[in-house]
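Supplementary notes for students who missed Thursday's class. We covered one full example, reproduced here. Read the sequence, then the structure, then the short commentary at the end.
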Amino acid sequence: MRLLMRDFGDVGSTSNDRTSPIMTMQGQTERPRGQLKSGLSHMNTLIVKLGATGDVVRTTSLLSQLNGQITWIAAPRNLVLLDGLRSNLRCFSWEERTTALDRRYDLAINLEDTIDVAQFLRAVEYREIFGAYLGSNDSVMYTQSSKRWFDLSLISSYGRQKADGLKLLNRQTYQELIFGGLGWRFTGEPYMLPGPIETGLSGDVAIAADAGPIWPMKRWAYYKELKQQLEDNGLIVNVLPKRPSLLEHLSDVRNHQCLVGGDSLPMHFALGSGTRCVTLFTCTSPWEIHDYGIQKKVISPLLEEFFYKRGYDERATTAITVDQVLDAVIAQLEATEPAAS
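Structure (token representation):
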């Protein structure tokens, strides 16, 4: 059996025990270790981040810190966003995950919170781990180094209700939480995106109105009224259509001066492609999103009431006014105009 040298320290777990020592496979107690160091040019790293697609996109900001060989396991639909991003990156779908067992990793980064991913990691040879893993009682636990992120998650050792409360109080971005846990400092490292497949759809403003079934309260009630008012001002406005390819969807976003929508994949495409955006936050955290200097956040006055609620209440979708969003869009469009000489 192999000895796993894990960067755990005290671990977060789904129980209330936050101080129990970590046991190696040989049954020896490990001493808590320091945080990970960046700049290891020959380090083999495994990243497990399957989805959602927007979360995969924002996790690509880590790639600038990893100079050795990188293996990324993702959901099949997201591979197109990762393939070819860097010469030292290879990507496998979750269904192909056993292919990644061909080497020993210096660092495994698991940003998923499910038991099937944690079980898979038991078959991976690694020296250190950041994120979720399978504990001795077959429950999903997480390393001390990753507690700033996973304390806010569905597997938080504090339970779901307190985790949501901590999430509401949190003022650090996703990147700050993950980079900090890995021992790095986030300094605005950008997303990495592939080239798009051109669609020919372009204009001044793109509207991303879809929210999906999980977060129905992300769908703002007044996109139709906003579109009409923008067009009355002589602007070309397009509601983003569904596309067969994520790369076509990326093209649609890039080909506009400003994107309007909720906390969603198009928002991440905008942030990654330098497209100004206006983002409406009705039930999710605006503070976890790094704005890269191109995003205007419009925050619902009822955010706290509906924070991370997955049901539907019309009040959540109507609390932000058309005038608020219209003013933000106009300001973003004016910011894209070249300064007068």
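Commentary. The CA atoms of residues 175 and 183 lie 12 Å apart. Residues 1-35 have pLDDT under 50 and may be disordered. If anything here is unclear, bring it to office hours.
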